[in-house]
Design a protein that fits this description.
It is a single chain. With 154 residues, the protein is of the alpha/beta class. It has one helix at 2-28; strands at residues 39-45, 48-52, 58-66, 69-73, 79-90, 93-97, 103-111, 114-117, 130-138, 141-145.
Length: 154
């Protein structure tokens, strides 16, 4: 019984520490970027951020979802060469919508979480615009997807 009580105290202390650290980050690190920005720095701590990008040369940036979520739609954006996006999800999630034809190179590491590429198409063309993803997912997830265009029925 004593061991269980010590374990519960440790877990409760860890959870309280994580929540306190997240609250500090929320006040200190604001989100930057809007629909026309070529670089983003999005932070969602205990809340959510939604953005539909119309960037003329999207270069990437950073995304941090900590006990929160980020949804970014890049289908109206034009990708710059060597675009790089750093994604970090800690007990949160990030969803990125991309247009058909983009390639994704993912170097995202997951610990008790997941990174999924749900693109409905294969963009194996070496000349296709490429977005490189790096980052870490802990007890959360990162999803990247594109909807396939509906083909007219014959």
């Amino acid at each position: 019984m004593r061991l269980i009580r010590k374990l519960m105290t440790l877990l409760l202390g860890f959870a309280a520490g994580m929540a306190a650290a997240a609250a500090v980050v929320k006040r200190v690190v604001p989100s930057r970027g809007d629909a026309d920005s070529d670089e983003l720095a999005l932070v969602a701590v205990f809340d959510g951020v939604e953005l539909r990008s119309r960037a003329s040369a999207f270069r990437g940036g950073t995304m941090l979802a900590w006990f929160g979520g980020i949804a970014v739609d890049l289908r109206e954006a034009t990708l710059a060469p060597e675009a790089h996006l750093s994604v970090h999800a800690l007990w949160g999630g990030i969803a990125i919508r991309i247009p058909e034809g983009w390639r994704i190179e993912s170097n995202v590491k997951a610990i008790m979480g997941g990174g999924i590429d749900t693109r409905a198409i294969d963009a194996d063309d070496p000349a296709a615009p490429t977005l490189t993803l790096d980052g870490l997912v802990v007890f959360g997830g990162v999803a990247v997807g594109a909807k396939r265009s509906k083909k007219p029925e014959s």
